Amino acid sequence: MKLILAIIKPFKLEEAKEALSQLGIQGMTVTEVKGFGRQKGHTEIYRGSEYTVDFLPKVKLEVVVADEIVPKVVAAIVKAAKTGKIGDGKVFVVPLDEAVRIRTDERGEAAL
Amino acid sequence: MKVVLSHLLRAVPAVVALALGPLPAHAQPAPPPPTLEQRVTALEAYVTNSDPGNALTGVPGPGHNAWMMTSAALVLFMTLPGLALFYGGLVRRKNVLSVLAQCLGIAGLVTILWWAVGYSLVFGTGFGSRFFGGAEYFFLHGVTSAPNTNYAFWVSQNVFAMYQLMFAIITPALIVGAIAERMKFSAVLLFMTLWMLVVYFPLAHMVWGATGLMNGVWNPDAPIRAIDFAGGTVVHMSSGWSALILALLIGPRLGFGKEKMAPHSMVLCMVGTGMLWVGWYGFNAGSAVGADGIAANAFTTTTIATAVAAFTWGMIERIFHGRSSILGFCSGAVGGLVVITPATGFVDTTGAVIIGVFAAAVPYLFVTKVKARFGYDDALDTFGVHAVGGTLGAFLTGLLATGAVNGNLTGGAAVKNGLAALVTHGGLWHEQLKAIAITLLLSVVATAVIGSIVKAVIGLRPTPEVERQGLDLAEHGEEGYIE
Known about the structure:
The structure holds 2 protein chains of 2 kinds. By secondary structure, chain A is α+β, with helices and mostly antiparallel strands. Chain A has helices at 13-22, 70-81; strands at residues 2-8, 29-35, 42-46, 49-53, 56-65, 89-95. In chain A, 20% of the residues lie in helices and 37% in strands. In chain A, helix 1 packs antiparallel against helix 2. In chain A, 16% of the residues are buried. Chain B is mainly α. In chain B, helix 3 (62-90) runs antiparallel to helix 8 (266-284), helix 5 packs parallel to helix 7 (232-250) and helix 7 (232-250) runs antiparallel to helix 12. Chain B is globular, with a radius of gyration of 24 Å. Chain B starts with a helix and ends in a 7-residue tail after the last helix. The A-B interface holds A 44-49, 51, 53 and B 260-263, 321, 325, 327-328, 331, 367-369, 371-372, 381, 384.
């Protein structure tokens, strides 16, 4: 099992969700987050006073999948979230020890 | 039961008369009833908003009264919630309630002052002074529904007093913008109390009182023949220049120039601006003190100057920064409203367009360039918009006023004190400069003294911890936004 963490542009969330659904992924967790990478922030001007905003709004998408479909899932997220411009985000793949479905106490991939 | 009661009540005077014996007859015979011609003349006077003569003395006119009650409510709406939201949106989220509290606190405080002494000191004449009104209306004594013909033939004096109260409320509330996010609530209340007594009441009498020093339109003996239709000097110059001095006295916000102090809600700011614009019709068109042609002209010029200024500011931004901002449009609108204020009942639509352009360009320079150059922390630009705009408006009024839209400039008291000649032949701007100088001097000196007194007695600022945490929690025990 792997935990896939994707930080993407907020307006790309719908497309990423659609792509994952088509792969048969049945659940995911989404959080509104702020951060910056190479894109850095942007500048706001209020009556001539300039402020640099470092942290930009992004969406963090978390999904746990079986090892064999990891490459497909990563490819699907990358394809759906890509605009080709700086600030598209990143995908991280993290090994995962255990998963439990609380209702039935199922373990491992059966719990996904 | 009700019927019995009302019969009993009606019988009371008769019983009293029986007990006390016959009442003494009136010393003078009643005046003869007015003739039909006098009655018709009085009705015509209602239509032309002029003196009804003896036939309708002491009777308010329903239409004029209705407009003035509406206007009074509109001007209150400018402060609560218009200005409160406009300013509230511009501060950081930890201080939004402090701004609302200051506006609410000032509304209550000034109303009490106005009732006790304020109205009388501004609109009384008992002292026979150019600087102070009189004591005859203290505690609104004798201020009834009958008109005070020194100021209006058809508007109830109590309505007039409430209308003018709303001006007295918004003026100190404007000062709040310059010292936002860093003044103790107690210090705000103490400063404003003293400021009303020392600056606003005398200044308002000088400009609008029947015996006022610079009331060119209505005081036939005014030594300074200046004009100020709705308060360019009284409201905007006084608050704006005082705001600058108070901001300098109190010092900049902690972290000013280093930390991000961007507005926390441009949405609230825009909502407040819209309310200010709408409310300002009461402020400007209401200043005709009647629903007459002068009010109609003021309504028109207010609209045009404001729209032109809002659009111009937005376009200046677009040219120099590539984008028009909401704050730019809002600042332009408020700038236009401020600058047209002293001129609104005295200029035509061409004048209003000229004023609109200046009202955007000049305050724009002050809030974006001058402030940055000198580094004073006029937090929400009370100085840059109201002092600069008020001064500019007072001056432009001197250049653009025309008797064609307002007969009061060329008739009545204006003929006697020489204003009419100044309007017709030019030179009014010279009188306006005198009014500007007096307003500026009084505001700056008095604020420096009062501010220093408050600073010495109770202090102006909260502790650095409180300021860092935000005034909302520490001063008012509430948060603007609960997660």
